[in-house]
Amino acid sequence: MLRRAADQRGRDGEAEAAAYLATQGWTILDTRIRTPAGEVDLIVRRRKLVAFVEVKTRATAAGLDFAIDERRLARVAAAAEMLAPRYLKPGDDMRVDVLLLAPGHPPRHIENAWIG
């Protein structure tokens, strides 16, 4: 039961993140894409840039400070490398971003979170 509630919170957070990114001029290309290397929550495009976005939702803003770690980012980056040929067009750039969400707080968008 707890796992199902956590999964639903994650899905709700991803929907909120997608809506936020759309207001910032991003086009949502895909959601919850799984690869053998890991999962990417959102894949978004703005002009010639494709971002592979990890979304983390926590009950409090304080919990966001510990929501993402290097190991998780490395998995997202590895998945992004696998997915790049599917989503990038010639001349596009790509990056891995993180979007942190907590009730009552504006979304925190960390651009280029993975520099590997």
Q: Which whole number gives the mean pLDDT? A: 93
Shape designation = globular
Discrete helix count: 3
Query: How is the biggest beta sheet arranged?
Result: 5 strands, mixed
β-strand percent reads 25-35%
CATH architecture: 3-Layer(aba) Sandwich
Q: How many angstroms separate the termini?
A: 37 Å
The CATH first-level class comes to: Alpha Beta
* CATH fold-level name: Trna Endonuclease, Chain: A, domain 1
Rg (C-alpha, Å): 14 Å
- Biggest sheet, strands in spatial order? 1-2-3-4-5
Helix-strand topology string: HEEEHHEE
* Content-based structural category: alpha+beta
* Tally of DSSP β-strands: 5
Count of separate structural domains: 1
Any low-confidence stretches, pLDDT <50, length ≥5?
none
Short description:
The chain has 116 residues and is an alpha+beta fold. The protein has one domain: Trna Endonuclease, Chain: A, domain 1. It has helices spanning 2-23, 61-64, 70-87, and strands at 27-35, 38-46, 49-57, 93-101, 108-110.
